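Quick one from the shared queue. A colleague (R.T.) flagged Tubulin-tyrosine ligase as missing a structural entry in our internal table.

Convert sequence to structure tokens.
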Amino acid sequence: MTCSYTNDLIRSVLEEENDLFRINNSSTSNDDNVLYWLEYEELDFDMIYRAAKDSNRKIFVNSYCIRKGLLRKANFALFVQKYLSKKPDSILRRHYPETHILDLSHPDYLDEALNEAYELRDVLQANVEETTDKPIPFILKASILDKASELFIFHTQAELEDFFTTKFDDDDEDEDEENNISMVREWVVQRYITNPKLLSVYQNRKFHLRVYVVAEKNLRVYVYDGILALFASLSYQNDQQSFNRLCHITNTCAQIDSPLDEEDLVKEFFTLEGLDDEIRSNIFEQIKTIVKEIFTGLHSETPIFQPLKNAFEIYGFDFLIDENNQVYFLEANAYPDFKQTGNSLSILIRELFQNVVQQIILPYFGHEQTNKDLQRRLHLVYDKQRTI
């Protein structure tokens, strides 16, 4: 792994297993028993698919190949639309914000994109005409970008047009293709949750939950109870006229210029003050149920999500809690940025990796689990072979 924070933790956890793993930096090996824990681009999926058919080789890798139905925001929104058409009573209707998809290659085509997303267009028009008691806000997200890139909160079509026009004009002067917004075609627009859970002990700063979800083989899914609460830098203000990004955006990477310390921005959910045990337990049960429902639907959608019997993957799922303690799924990320946890809570990531090694990797290679006294653990929420 290229991130030293993550790489050092993985190495130290594997080295705990009494020489069961021989660690090297090569992305190829002729051995019959190999664990590949690499960046996605470094994995040889042709070899991995061949190894899955070879009973004499045990190759285990840290990523599935096809999982865009989970990770790309537009693909996931389409999956939810399809799933709800078949299962209208699914909990995803209540726990996934209203979402619209915009296919937009240039600001000149925004009218056409909104004609396709006509329900969104009508709400934006109502916001202008003041036919609603209070304008309904939406948040724009690029389908394939992460780290809070290009997040934008708006109420009207005019605001959206201004955003895209400014961004495209800036990109005309930017030769960096990697950061060029004109390369992004798919966008999602979600109804913005205006009543987030706020805790006075933390100055009523908005926060979201980063939950680590582990999928293995074909297919079991676990939720890790070492959950992070990621806070905004400033107290939440639901004021249309004085929008401040640092009040609304809770991603750690967006807090670079924050005057607050790491310990104020990243906390462990189960130790948050201002929440009693019953509320915490209820929130965790909602999270597990939502994750189970997502994979219940995805496991049969092989064009957009294909588990592999010789692979596992760790995802970072983001959730928001509202003032009524209802949980909303926001998005999933592969190769989550573990270093956002910081140094003071690095034990959460170490124990995550230890759980993965104990419960998933060692059994795959026929080794018994070693006796680890871990405070945090993985909770099985979905097993394709049986009902949980």
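The chain has three domains: 4-61, 66-97+193-212+227-307+318-334, 112-187.
Residues 112-187 form one domain.
Added to the table.
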